[in-house]
Amino acid sequence: MRLRLVFTFLTLVSLVSMSGQDLSPEALLFRGKVASSYPYMKYTGIYYAYSMEYKEGTLKYNHKLYEGVHLNYNAHKGEMCVDNGNGMQPIVLNEKYFEYCEFDGKKFVYLTGVKPLEDGYYQVLFENSEAVLYKRIIKHYEARDVNKEFIEKVSYHFYKGDQYRQLKTKYQLFKFYPEYKNLRYKEQGTMEGDLVVILGKIYNVEGVR
Q1: How far from chain centre, in Å, is Cα 50?
Q2: pTM score, whole prediction
Q3: Could you tell me the end-to-end alpha-carbon distance of the chain, in angstroms, rounded to an integer?
Q4: Nearest-angstrom CA–CA distance, 43 and 29
Q5: What ranges do the domains of the chain cover?
């Protein structure tokens, strides 16, 4: 009887040890739900933010920095996904552990409790100790006549200190910098490009697009 109790105790210790190994940071990274796919839907456009291809990048997740991971952002589901590179389906990252990622020259953060923004993933276009410019990308699945497609909706959000404004034109940025209202800069042909260039000129730095 005593021998049986000792054996049972050792078995429990072994199981706890194995469980601890399973909870390693690497295991946590790929322990999530399978990323959404749309194999039976007919549509035009894409549900990822920029490209269907997963790009190699850097990920800060659960206080651990991962390099050389392949990432992509599903702007339809609002999910950041990671490909384990083993031929399996990509996995959705848990936003609770997500800190930031950078891939394809773009940086993403997950914002929660930042008023008046909705919780979710935001691309960082510019940031320093004083100001930050976010881009929010959402894609809706809509039916237009007989065609169904993913329609992109983009918004820009600017913080300077404790001041906030959703920017609908580049000129609204100068409300924060009235002394630069006559600033000369090379126009980029898009609102996003101009916003980044203007901030770069003001702070004499480049953005992080």
Answers
A1: 12
A2: 0.83
A3: 68
A4: 31
A5: 28-171
